[in-house]
Amino acid sequence: MGPTPIAGAHDPRPTGKLFALRWKHEYLRRILLGAILTFSIIVMFISLEHRASTKQVSIVEDGIPSVIQTRTTNVLALLEEQEIQLNVHDQLSVSMTDSLKDGSVIVIDRAKGITVQADGHEELKFTTADTVGEAVEALNLSLGSEDLISPSISTSVEEGMKVTVTRVKTEIIETSEPIGFSVVQEKNANLAEGKQKIVTTGQEGILIHKTMNTYKNGKLVSEKLVESVVSKEAVNQVVAVGTKKAQVSMLSYNGKPTAVEASVVNLNGKSVKVKRTLSNVTLTAYHAGFASTGKNKGDKGYGITASGTTVEEGRTIAVDPDVIPMGWWVYIEGIGFRRAEDTGSAIKGKKIDVFYESESYVNKFGKKRGYTVYVIGPVKPTAN
Hints:
Elements: H1 16-53, E1 55-61, E2 64-70, H2 75-81, E3 91-92, E4 105-109, E5 112-118, E6 121-127, H3 132-138, E7 148-150, E8 162-166, E9 168-179, E10 183-192, E11 196-200, E12 205-216, E13 219-232, E14 237-244, E15 247-253, E16 256-267, E17 270-274, E18 276-286, H4 290-293, E19 316-318, E20 329-332, E21 336-342, E22 351-355, H5 359-365, E23 368-377
Parallel strand pairs: 1-4, 5-8, 10-14, 18-22, 19-21
Antiparallel strand pairs: 1-2, 3-4, 5-6, 7-8, 9-12, 11-14, 12-13, 15-16, 16-17, 18-23, 19-22, 20-21, 20-23
């Protein structure tokens, strides 16, 4: 048997209204819990998505790095987001369309404006190079091996700086200078005493000077002698000096006895026997006009010599008859054969006045000293 219920005890049954209230409360609680759970899941997914789309990107500008958190997808969007503007000459290490990844590094090299002076021109150039040497190379400036750059190639590039290129050129110039020859005398017993004969003709040598000329921007700035070289040796002139005693005989002209040498000399290609050799003779010149003779054309005796001949250029000379007999032929070195036909008050001793037709030439002739004159005789040589 089972237990006996206590008197008056009973189990009250819920009414329908109470049941509905309980059910509604339970339903609301479940809905609220579901909403909270859903919201939490959504927040978690949003957080995960945000974390997944956020990237950490490094931007290095002019060597200074900075780290940026971004959700942009490419380089162009990042630059626009960060309001970074680029000049046309600036350089990026990546392309504008490149995608961004977490840890991406973007290097921005800002171009600097420099003034380049070269070849007479100045021009503004832009470069991202760090040094002057790198800038010159990047700008494709043509440089010679000797050209100079200021400032030096190791100098850091600064905004607004001026780079000067100096064109340098060196060249070797050769100039020649004559080397004089010496005159060597040799005694010759077969040659008459007082006579000289060139045995070996002297020849000048050549000395070459090599000079290095340096030009900067086309202007000569320095000359430096590098070396001097003898390209041709000088040849000494050998002169034979006669030691043979001349045969002396006594001749007479103008009533005066005179010692006359007898020797054979080569004159103007002819072997000529000369009676006497005069050294250190002084030459002057005259013409037939008033300035030389005191006579004008038309005057009596105009153009007539002291010996009665008519003056003739290339033949007539005035002499001292005590030195050269009238009518005798002589040979004047550098002048040629002439005949003693005239005299003059100023013509004394070893002095000869040579006749020329031109008064202007006579004026230019002046007085010439140191001539050698060979006295030949009354007959002009015509053959060997």
